[in-house]
Design a protein that fits this description.
By secondary structure, the protein is mainly alpha-helical. Helix content is 73%, strand content 0%. The chain contains 10 helices and no strands.
């Protein structure tokens, strides 16, 4: 019975983490003049807007996944390159900070038996914030790392890179399911939390 409760707690924290991650991205882009997230209804904390079933299930069963990505447009940024880097770096950095904060809180309450499930929820929040941050560093579309990488590529290289988006996505899912990259991702997550 406890395993079901732990999966439910983890599922709720995944929804919180992915929703907040996409909301941060939408907010940062909007603050720079982008109207696309608001026009598409993504400037919200409504989890339905960012829920993506495959990414959610992967997150739940492998520890790494994604949400329905927030689309942004750099058209109204003062500086497109810098604005894009800020938009896609902010949710990663804020997630790392939140992971550290929730880990610290977890350490304070973990020895209290009465707060057992709360301690579990705090642990999952810390771990999942770290996981989404680390996973989004990967330079694979639609992860934040792919947008950041594009800022440093020449136009021709960016086009060539874009041609490999789908195969790279499939490869990452395959590698996660087989556990080929999870030890590396786990190593970095464990450094954070």
């Amino acid at each position: 019975m406890d395993i079901i409760i732990y999966y439910l707690i983890n599922a709720v924290t995944i929804i919180i983490v992915t929703t907040l991650f996409e909301f941060i991205k939408a907010s940062v882009s909007t603050l720079q003049g982008d109207t696309l997230p608001k026009n598409q209804g993504k400037l919200t904390l409504n989890p339905v807007k960012s829920f993506e079933p495959i990414g959610f299930l992967l997150f739940l069963f492998t520890g790494y996944g994604w949400a329905n990505p927030t689309e942004t447009s750099s058209r109204n940024y003062k500086d497109r390159k810098i604005g894009t880097i800020i938009t896609y770096t902010a949710p990663i950095l804020i997630s790392v900070i939140l992971a550290i904060v929730f880990k610290a809180i977890t350490n304070m309450v973990q020895d209290t038996i009465i707060l057992g499930y709360l301690s579990t929820a705090l642990y999952y929040l810390a771990r999942n914030f770290a996981a989404i941050a680390v996973f989004n560093i990967l330079p694979v579309y639609p992860m934040c790392g792919s947008w950041i990488l594009r800022c440093f590529l020449s136009p021709n290289s960016a086009i060539k890179y874009g041609q490999y988006e789908k195969p790279l996505q499939i490869a990452v899912i395959f590698f996660i399911l087989l556990g080929w990259i999870t030890p590396i991702l786990n190593y970095v997550v464990n450094i954070i939390v």
